[in-house]
């Protein structure tokens, strides 16, 4: 298992999301195979969340395949304000600390996308840091790019700034209606966002409700209060029970 980190910047809402995707070698190999299957050349082409999707079926198919892979990984996030962009590397270090609190992730390599300004970072024992990584060659960072975009869309949806709709039959076969894309994205990666610690209350039978605390969530000191509230409300607890 390795950890891949990339950001998604949203100036209009004054936040940056850092997504840390914990992925196995098998999952990064699946991402490489997905690139080839969708008409791209691995290590020459790459998935970018900014790539044009309209009238680009290959890009749409690749995004959907990455979405499936991400849903089987684990995801931790960090959120800061746009003016803190120069301190993303330090925020990444805090995300790693949050991941290690679960006690099952040790001796990992952390890959950071190129472009992050160098900051002092203290990682837990056994962790190594690879900075300035080219996402074309470190394919796991492409998963992190895609994931950061998904998480940002979920947050924007919670803030009322992203209202795109998709056919409901993507989640509920046979339903002719529509769903918020932000909700559909959440549904597809919710298990990856969920940590091992229950967040729900005990029912009458002594069982926890199927709601878990996030796998990892940290905020910068300068994070916008409204943004932090939206993130905590939407992602602070993750429902892993049935949604059908």
TrEMBL record:
Q: What protein is this chain from?
A: DUF3800 domain-containing protein
The record ties this protein, via InterPro entries, to:
DUF3800
Task: Report keywords, A-Z.
Answer: Plasmid
């Amino acid at each position: 298992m390795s950890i891949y980190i990339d950001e998604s910047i949203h100036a209009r809402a004054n936040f940056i999301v850092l997504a840390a995707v914990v992925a196995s070698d098998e999952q990064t190999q699946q991402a490489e195979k997905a690139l080839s299957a969708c008409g791209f050349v691995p290590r020459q082409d790459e998935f970018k969340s900014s790539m044009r999707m309209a009238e680009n079926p290959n890009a749409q198919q690749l995004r959907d395949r990455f979405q499936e892979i991400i849903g089987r990984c684990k995801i931790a996030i960090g959120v800061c304000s746009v003016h803190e962009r120069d301190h993303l590397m330090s925020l990444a270090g805090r995300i790693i600390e949050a991941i290690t609190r679960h006690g099952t992730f040790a001796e990992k390599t952390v890959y950071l996308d190129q472009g992050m300004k160098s900051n002092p970072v203290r990682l837990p024992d056994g962790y190594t840091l690879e900075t300035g990584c080219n996402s074309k060659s470190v394919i796991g960072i492409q998963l992190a790019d895609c994931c950061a975009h998904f998480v940002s869309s979920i947050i924007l949806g919670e803030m009322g700034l992203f209202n795109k709709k998709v056919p409901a039959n993507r989640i509920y076969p046979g339903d002719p209606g529509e769903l918020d894309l932000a909700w559909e994205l959440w549904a597809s990666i919710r298990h990856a966002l969920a940590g091992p610690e229950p967040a729900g209350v005990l029912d009458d039978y002594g069982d926890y409700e199927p709601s878990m605390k996030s796998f990892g969530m940290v905020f910068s000191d300068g994070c916008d209060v409204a943004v932090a509230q939206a993130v905590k409300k939407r992602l602070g607890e993750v429902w892993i029970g049935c949604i059908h």
